[in-house]
Design brief:
The chain has a domain at 1-66. It is built from six helices and no strands. The protein has helices spanning 11-31, 35-45, 51-63, 68-76, 82-105, 108-137. Helix 2 (35-45) packs across helix 3 (51-63).
């Protein structure tokens, strides 16, 4: 693991951050996710951030218009349900506020365990679903 210095960003750190951003962007544009799955673990395990600092940084990234070009491509293909998206966005703001308050009140270790458990459950469900779908396609 690299030593992460908050005050300086050398060329190696910048290259790592750009790589994390590109991978998260590709995954986001490809399957609609990226922040939690790529950015948070990469910041923790590659740059040595704490769980909460990685989550806060990931949320900061999501505030910026990182998905604007991907959204534009889906818009051109008429693949966006704007009404659903607006409702989810408004609820996401409220949920993000509540979730951040909860995360900052409990142990960072417990937050990491919960985060990992959620990722594991979702991973298993996606794998099983994919295998079942592949079996049905044959």
């Amino acid at each position: 693991m690299l030593t992460f210095n908050k005050k300086t960003m050398d060329s190696q750190t910048i290259l790592i951050l750009v790589t994390i951003g590109i991978l998260a962007g590709i995954l986001s544009g490809f399957v609609g996710v990226g922040g939690g799955i790529i950015i948070v673990p990469a910041l923790i395990y590659v740059l040595g951030m704490s769980q909460l600092e990685a989550q806060g940084t990931s949320l900061f990234v999501l505030l910026l218009p990182v998905g604007v070009l991907a959204v534009h491509n889906y818009y051109k293909s008429d693949q966006i349900n704007w009404k659903f998206g607006l409702v989810i966005s408004l609820a996401f703001v409220i949920g993000g506020f509540i979730g951040s308050k909860l995360a900052l009140r409990i142990s960072p270790s417990l937050v990491r365990v919960i985060f990992g458990a959620i990722m594991a459950i979702i991973s298993v469900k996606l794998i099983v679903s994919g295998i079942n779908t592949m079996s049905n396609e044959s």
